[in-house]
Amino acid sequence: MKLKTRAIVVLFASCISLFLYIVLKPVAPVGRINSDMTEITKGDNSRTIEVHSVHGAVNEQEQQKHGAKRDKLIKQLIEKYKIDFKSHSNVLFPWNQAASWIQSRQLIPEDPNAKLGAVLKAMHSAKIIHADVGYRGTQLKLSLTLDGGQKVAFKPQWFKRDFIIVGKPYDGADRHNAEIAAFHLARLLGLYRTPLAVGRTINLKTAIMPVAEQRLLDTFFTSGKNTCFYGKCLYCKGPEDGVCAQGEMLEGTIVLWLPSSVKLKTYHHPWGRTYQEGKQARWETDNDYCTQVKQFPLYQDGTLLLDIIDGAVLDYLIGNSDRHHYEIIENQPEPMLLLLDNAKSFGNPYYDERSIMAPIYQCCRIQKILWEKLNFLKSDVLGEVLQNILMFDPIAPVLTWPHYKAIDRRLGHIINTVQDCIGKYGANAVLV
User: What angle (nearest 5°) sits at the alpha carbon of residue 329, between those of residues 323 and 333?
Assistant: First the structure.
C-alpha cells in the first residue's frame, strides 16, 4: 500500500513539474520574433535586389554596347555619303563627267568620291547663260542652261521649311527642298536612279532676266519690293499663280537634266491615282491587283516590277503619293525605272499615307539587297544620317526635325509590312 501511494505521489509530482516547465518556459518577446523574421526577409530581399542589380547592370552594358555600335555605324555612313563642297575642286568638264555615269542600272555612281561633289558644286555655282519657261508638268519651274551647255531645271521655293501641307496627299505646290532630300535618301538606300539635285539661291534681276527669253520676261512682275514671275505651266495662269523672291534673291533647287542623247520612254504607273474626287483606281479596291499586273508582258520578265516596289519604298519614306507615270531609258538591255520628279514630297511629317505602300503589300516581294539595307538603317539610323548629310547642302537646313523622325517611323512601317509578307509566304518567296 505504501509503495502504491509513493508511486502515485511521484507521478503526481512529475506531472506538476512538467506543467510548471511548460507554463513558465521563457518565451521570446514578440518584438524579437518580428525582428528575427525581418532579418530573414531582409536577407531574401537582399538576394533578390542583388540578382536584379546584376541583370540591370548586364542590360545597361548591352544598351551601352548597342549604342556605341549604332553611333559608330552612323559616323561611318556620314563619312561615306557626305558631300562637302569645300573639299571638292572644280573639274574641267563636269557635264561630261555626269553623262559618263549613266549606265543600264544607274544615273549616278555608287562611290560618292567619284567627283559627285564636283558636279554638284558646278550645278550650284556655274554661270547661267540662258533662261526659259519650263513647259513640262503642272508646276512652275524654269529651264536654265549653265555655262558649258548643261540644261537644268530650277524649282523655286514656295514654302518655309516648317510649312505643313494639309488635304489630299498630293495637294500643294512643289517643295523644292524635297528634290534634294530625295536624291540623298535614294543614295543611302542604294537606289542610284534619281537625278542630281542641289540647292541654289539666284538673283532674278542680274542672273535670270538679262539672259531670259521674252516669253519668260513677259511673266515677270513686282509685288512690293519683291521680284516675281509666273512662267508657263498647266497651273500658271497669271500673277496670282506666281512666285516671289525675297527682294531679288530666290531660293530653289537645281535638278540636272539628262543628256539629249538619252532617250526616255514614259509609262503609266500601275498604281497611279485617278485624281478624281470620289473615283478610286482599281488597285485601291482590289487587294489581288498585283496578280493582274504580273500578267502584262512588261512586268513578266526583267526587273521593272521590282523597280516599282523599290520606288514605293522611297515614296513612302518621303511621303510622295504623286507617282502617276514613270520613265525608263530606251534601248537598254535591262531598263530601270527612273525616280524623277520627287518635289511632291515632305508635305506633312505627322501623316503617313499607307496606300503608297500598295505595291509592297499587294505584291509581297522586295529585292533582298534593299531589304537588308532597310534593316541596316533601322533603329533611327536613317534619319540621323540623312540629316547630317543634308547639312552640307548650300541651302541647309533642307528639312525640319519632324521630317527625319517621320522617315524613321515610316521605315518601321515598311519593315513590319514586309515581315507580315514573310510570315504569310516565307522569305524565299518574298525576298528576291
Answer: 125
Strands (E), 337-409: 337-338
**Terminal-to-terminal C-alpha distance of the chain:** 112
Q: Distance (Å, rounded) from C-alpha 119 to C-alpha 106?
A: 16
pLDDT of residue 332: 85
- Can you tell me the distance from the alpha carbon of 421 to that of 428, in angstroms, rounded to the nearest whole number? 11
pLDDT at 91: 82
Rg (CA), the chain: 35
Task: Name the DSSP letter for residue 282.
Answer: G
Reply yes or no on whether 322 is catalytic.
yes
CA distance linking residue 188 with residue 411, whole number of Å:
13
Quick one: cell of 145? Answer: 542652261
Q: Minimal CA–CA distance to 129: which of 215, 212, 200? A: 212
Among 414, 298, 299, 424, which Cα is nearest to 360's?
Answer: 414
Predicted pLDDT of residue 55:
62
Q: Which residues pair with 202 in a beta bridge?
A: 250
The answer to whether 294 and 288 have CB atoms below 8 angstroms apart is: no
pLDDT of residue 59: 79
CA 108/CA 78 separation, integer angstroms: 18
273: cell is 491615282
Say if residues 118 and 204 touch (Cβ distance below 8 Å). Answer: no
DSSP 196: P
Rounded Cα gap, residues 244 and 223, in angstroms: 8
333: preceding bond cis by omega (within 30 degrees): no
How far is it, in rounded angstroms, from Cα 229 to Cα 248?
A: 11
The C-alpha atoms of residue 318 and residue 188 are separated, in whole angstroms, by 13
Q: Per residue in 188-224, pLDDT tens?
A: 999 999 999 999 999 999 999 999 999 999 999 999 9
| Burial (CB count <10 Å: 0-12, 13-18, 19+), residue 127 | exposed
Q: Which of 174, 322, 393, 408 is catalytic?
A: 322
